Automatic annotation (TrEMBL):
<dbReference type="InterPro" id="IPR025355">
    <property type="entry name" value="DUF4259"/>
</dbReference>
<protein>
    <recommendedName>
        <fullName>DUF4259 domain-containing protein</fullName>
    </recommendedName>
</protein>
<dbReference type="Pfam" id="PF14078">
    <property type="entry name" value="DUF4259"/>
</dbReference>
Length: 135
């Protein structure tokens, strides 16, 4: 993964995922497929795409988050199914032996891990409209 920052869209995998999102005719299916692909032992690329998917699905319904993602694609309705699948993916990504987590820890970068913990809390809470400036 080529990365130029610690943000969820500051890497090649997330950029490629967003291009795929723009091109797809079924954003909901792509989102579920991306999140479902993250299982125990997922590689960093799958996890990185899932993090981008999670941030996109948490984007504000009025589109104000589009400036942070640089993509004006409206986020999906946050259903119980989406929350559940996303929370399961986050659990795998944040596992102590997960490649994504290990890569950030090896680089002495805690911010991406803390951000993902924040996204988990947003999914658990009733308030799922984050301030885009927090990303």
């Amino acid at each position: 993964m080529g990365a130029w920052g610690t943000g969820p869209f500051d890497n090649d995998d997330a950029a490629d995922w967003m291009l795929e999102l723009e091109a797809t005719g079924d954003a909901d299916a792509l989102l579920l497929d991306t999140l479902d692909s993250v299982g125990q032992g997922a590689d960093a690329s799958e996890a990185t795409c899932a993090v981008a998917a999670i941030v996109w699905m948490l984007s504000a319904p009025d589109g104000e988050f589009a400036s942070a993602t640089k993509r004006p694609i409206p986020a999906p309705i946050l259903t119980v199914q989406l929350r559940s699948v996303a929370l399961r993916a986050i659990g795998h990504i944040l596992a102590e032996d997960a490649e994504w987590r290990e890569l950030w820890e090896d680089a002495d970068e805690e911010e991406p891990i803390q951000q993902l913990e924040h996204y988990r809390q947003l999914l658990i809470s009733d308030d799922h409209t984050p301030d885009p400036r927090s990303f």
